[in-house]
Structure formats: C-alpha cells, structure tokens
Recover the amino acids of this structure.
C-alpha cells in the first residue's frame, strides 16, 4: 500500500469521537457535530472493511492449505472473489492517503479560462460540467457560488462549493492548468486549437483558525448579477465583489438574493484563501491563490487531446486513458487516486 494503515490509531480516534459526541454541548454547534459524526462513520466503515478483509483472507488461506490440488472449483471461486478483495484494499489504501491537514474539509473550486477568448471560455465551461458530473456520480454536492458567462459562449469564471466525504482531499489534485487540444467548433475552417484553463481548489477553513482581516484592507463593490438565479437576483445590486488590497485576491459571489449573504460567502472564501496562504506558504504561492499563474504551454498538469487522437494524460503521475469522452463526462476518480498515491 502507498500509505500506512494503523488500526490502533483509527480505533483510538473512533473512541475519542464517540466520547465527544456523547456530550450534550457539542450539539450546540451542529456544523462541528455533523463533521465529527461524518468522520466517525467513515472511520468505522474503514475499520470494518479492514477486519472483514482480514477474516476473508485468513479463511482463503486455510481453505487453500487444506484443499486438494485438483479442486478447480474451489480455486476458481477464490480467484473470482479476489477482485472484490483487491477493491477493498484500494479503498483502505485511499483512507491512508487522505490524512492531510485539510483533507476532510469542504472546498471551493474555481475555474478561470486562459488567453484565447471564446475557445478558452468554452473549455472552462467543459471543465465545470466535468466536475459537476463527477459530483453527481460520486455522491458529492456542489453549489454554484458565482459564475460569469463568456461573451459568445462558455464561462469567464465560476466558483463552486463542494461538500461530501473528503472533498478537499480528492479535489486538491485538480489544482493547476488544464490543456485542451481539439478541432474548434468556433472555427469555420475546422482547424485544431489549443485552449487552457486554470483550476484553483481552496479548503473551507474553520472560522476559529482564520487570519485577521483589517477593514481598511478590504474593498467591497456591489453590482447587478449577470447569472441565473431568479428575477430578484437580476434586478437588484445583490452581487458582491470583495478585494483584499494587500494581496490583490478578488472574490465574487452572486448566488444569493441578499447582498449581505453574498458578502458573507465572499468573505468566507477570502478568509479561507488567506488562512491557507498563511499556514502553507511553503506549498502555495500568492500567484496560485490569485489565479494569475501562467495559463499557457508547459504549465499544464493535465492534457486533454481530442484531435488527431483521443487521450487524457496527467503530466505529474503519467496516468492516462484513451477514453477522453468518459473523462469529460466526469470519470476522473482514477486521476485523483493516482495523484494521492504519487504525493505519498
């Protein structure tokens, strides 16, 4: 396995969580209680899977030890069941890889097109659809916080909040530049085009550990929402843009009808960005959080080639598949897993 499965540590954490959840005062903070309960459920599931797999493997060892060499039926049965065991081992392996500081937290995923106008905006829209389909297929929930349509097609930017099991742990490997090569549907001469889009993934950090933001360091602008959200959204200045002047980080939110709620969400995202920046300066640069990294040749983490052949390849792990259509329809779990393994 890529990680280390320490059963004693997991059992100790289970006991710790059970004791905390027995206390009445923990439920005065439902968000924290639900987070702890979700962790407890996942830990118990992992430990149960580990025990079941151990017992099953021991049974197979005993059966094979006592079996007759010519007992093909028994051997075939065990071979058929080994596929299921292999999948269980992979799930346990993943549980050892998802042990980062923020892996259990919800996250905000942002997509920004690179240079290239309509082509790049359309690619940003395709990536947004890919992540939304991944969420739908894998039990994650997404909420569009803010989005801005391109002039002709696609998206100029989009922010989604993703919740579920280890959202940041899985999605953190998607951060970086994504490169698309295809025959452009916007080119009347049907020429091949290369497009780029940048993905940023920020954990939703707890307010208790947030950095201090001085009022004089913030500029807040309000404007009329240009996205979908009902008649009330589009006819009032409810959208909010918050700029952190010292760093240049800009966050927009237009999801709610209420200007106050939109500002609260924008400030929450900004707080998460600044807190992550302060606590992980060795791993994250200000440019990556501002989404101003070089969105061009040589900077991509993943290549999506649709012409003259179909191939999706991750430049960090070398994991690839020729089923590009499936990837763009949300089948990216294996890319996420390979990233987790290589980071270990």
């Amino acid at each position: 396995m890529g990680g280390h499965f320490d059963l004693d540590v997991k059992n100790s954490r289970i006991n710790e969580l059970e004791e905390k959840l027995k206390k009445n005062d923990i439920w005065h903070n439902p968000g924290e209680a639900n987070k702890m309960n979700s962790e407890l459920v996942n830990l118990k599931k992992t430990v149960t899977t580990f025990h079941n797999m151990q017992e099953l493997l021991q049974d197979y060892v005993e059966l094979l030890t006592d079996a007759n060499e010519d007992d093909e039926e028994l051997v075939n049965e065990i071979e058929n069941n080994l596929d299921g065991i292999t999948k269980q081992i992979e799930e346990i392996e993943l549980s050892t890889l998802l042990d980062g500081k923020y892996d259990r937290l919800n996250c905000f995923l942002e997509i920004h097109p690179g240079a290239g106008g309509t082509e790049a905006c359309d690619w940003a829209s395709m990536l947004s659809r890919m992540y939304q389909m991944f969420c739908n297929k894998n039990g994650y929930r997404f909420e569009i916080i803010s989005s801005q349509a391109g002039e002709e097609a696609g998206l100029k930017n989009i922010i989604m909040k993703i919740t579920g099991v280890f959202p940041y742990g899985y999605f953190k490997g998607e951060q970086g530049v994504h490169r698309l090569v295809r025959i452009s549907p916007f080119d009347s001469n049907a020429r091949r085009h290369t497009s780029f889009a940048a993905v940023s993934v920020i954990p939703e950090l707890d307010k208790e550990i947030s950095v201090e933001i001085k009022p004089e360091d913030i500029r807040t602008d309000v404007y009329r929402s240009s996205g979908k959200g009902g008649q009330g959204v589009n006819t009032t200045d409810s959208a909010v843009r918050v700029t952190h002047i010292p760093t240049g980080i800009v966050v927009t939110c237009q999801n709610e009808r209420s200007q106050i709620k939109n500002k609260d969400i924008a400030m929450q995202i900004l707080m998460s960005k600044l807190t992550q920046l302060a606590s992980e300066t060795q791993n994250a640069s200000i440019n990556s959080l501002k989404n101003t990294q070089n969105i061009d040749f040589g900077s991509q983490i993943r290549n999506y080639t649709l012409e003259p052949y179909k191939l999706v390849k991750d430049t960090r792990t070398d994991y690839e598949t020729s089923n590009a259509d499936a990837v763009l329809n949300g089948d990216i779990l294996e890319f996420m897993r390979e990233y987790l393994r290589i980071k270990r």
Q: What stands out?
A: Residues 30-66 form the longest helix (37 residues).
